[in-house]
Design a protein that fits this description.
three-stranded antiparallel β-sheet, about 120 residues, four-stranded antiparallel β-sheet, globular, Phenol Hydroxylase P2 Protein, alpha+beta
């Protein structure tokens, strides 16, 4: 799907769209099904990872969040962005259809990473 399609359901994410040629070789990150929580999680990941967040690929019914080597989603950031409490672990995993790299889930954060 195009950036225009993304702008219909998540205009705040269009600033993060990158083309496939910019995918990092050491890719990590979640694939989120299209949802309001996916928008909040992506915004929180972008905020929490200024050095490693690359952007997103819009795939219509889902978005792939791209990071280099390590991405963290902090529960506190997600709850602030969403404006509500989020069940950790549990609620984010339901909208995450896949991920790149390894994953570690705790009660306070989700980390996608690559081991050296």
């Amino acid at each position: 799907m195009s950036v225009a399609a993304l702008s219909e359901w998540a205009p705040e994410l269009t600033q993060f769209v990158v083309d496939e040629g910019k995918m990092p070789k050491d890719l990590v990150g979640p694939v989120f099904m299209k949802s309001e929580l996916a928008v909040y999680a992506t915004l929180a990941i972008a905020e929490d990872n200024p050095e490693t967040f690359v952007g997103i690929l819009d795939r219509g019914l889902y978005i792939r969040v791209l990071g280099q080597r390590r991405l963290v989603l902090n529960k506190a950031t997600l709850e602030r962005v969403a404006g509500r409490e989020v069940r950790f672990p549990g609620e984010v995993e339901v909208i995450m259809s896949a991920f790149a790299g390894k994953i570690q889930v705790t009660g306070e954060k989700i980390t996608w990473y690559l081991e050296l």
